[in-house]
Design goal:
Aminopeptidase; 12 strands; 297 residues; twelve-stranded mixed sheet
Length: 297
């Protein structure tokens, strides 16, 4: 049961080491409860990869003996979630003050689901919105009969672990040169994702031109009824030939064949061309994430 505390009893952060199994179990429990309540995860995949690799630190948020939330901090980024039953009691504001002190200088923070409480807190703490990430979804039964697109001699085949890694990392960096997370993926990051239980090279679709060069890809994440277009990209000089649409159609057909009922993807709201393509394929808004940045004092 959550009750309002006096200021002297307000939250403190408990940093968790990578070997603190009990603490990390509580961290994951709080995240799972928030996901079940809100319908979206409080920590994104990149943040959890950073936690696993030691680049960010997990925290539990406590008020005396009461566990009221969890957080991630490091690399100039902060993510915070308060348990559903403990919201609107000032815990988030107090925890945020402590987290901000841990990250001097420029700090960014995600509001997953564009929560109105987070919006109000951002204004109060001198943060401004700098990015908007859309999660779009479509029912696969509505897309399985889409007309095919000509590949002009190019062909789609499966990713070959150990052979395609370096070429894919280079292409991905070129495609997402201005993207702060996706464009920075290394071969080590790729290997970490290949170690995930959901990874299958057959679900990593590679588009090659007539000379065998990689010019596009559609990496799928199949893990239950909702299949994800995990990341999709086309070599910039090959843009405008319908390759993106062809890769999308191939991915949607594969998700449907795998038994997925829904396809999901994430896209920057200001990526007008990509958003237009996805909407033309039947995708509609599901959730909105907003990233905030702290203004200089």
């Amino acid at each position: 049961m959550c009750t309002r505390k006096t200021m002297s009893e307000f939250p403190i952060l408990s940093a968790l080491s990578k070997t603190d199994a009990a603490g990390l179990t509580e961290f994951r429990r709080i995240a799972a409860e928030a996901l079940a309540f809100d319908g979206y995860a409080p920590f994104n995949e990149q943040g959890l990869f950073d936690l696993h690799s030691g680049l960010r630190t997990a925290y539990l948020v406590r008020s005396n003996d009461l566990l009221v939330g969890a957080a991630l901090a490091g690399r100039g980024e902060i993510d915070l979630v308060i348990t559903p039953e403990c919201r609107r009691r000032g815990y988030g504001r107090a925890a945020w003050g402590e987290l901000s002190a841990l990250e001097p200088g420029v700090v960014t923070a995600w509001s997953h689901g564009d929560h109105p409480g987070a919006r109000a807190l951002a204004v109060e703490l001198n943060f401004v919105a700098v990015r908007t990430l859309l999660e779009l979804r479509t029912t696969l039964a509505d897309t399985e009969e889409s007309a095919s697109v000509s590949l002009d001699g190019a062909g789609i085949s499966a990713f070959r672990p150990g052979l395609d890694d370096a070429e894919w990392v280079d292409l991905n960096a070129l495609v997402f040169a201005t993207h702060p997370e996706q464009g920075a993926i290394t071969e080590a990051d790729l290997a970490a994702r290949q170690a995930e239980s959901w990874f299958s090279s057959d679900d990593f679709l590679i588009l090659r031109d007539v000379e065998g060069r990689m010019i596009g890809y559609n990496w799928l994440k199949i893990d239950g009824a909702i299949g994800e277009i995990y990341v999709i990209g086309v070599y910039p000089d090959a843009a405008g030939h319908g390759f993106g649409r062809a890769l999308m159609q191939a991915g949607l057909q594969r998700l449907h064949a795998a038994g997925c009922s829904t396809a999901a993807l994430y896209v920057e709201a200001d990526s007008a061309g990509a958003v237009h393509l996805y909407r033309s394929l039947g995708f509609t808004d599901h959730t909105v994430d907003v990233q905030y940045r702290r203004l200089a004092d």
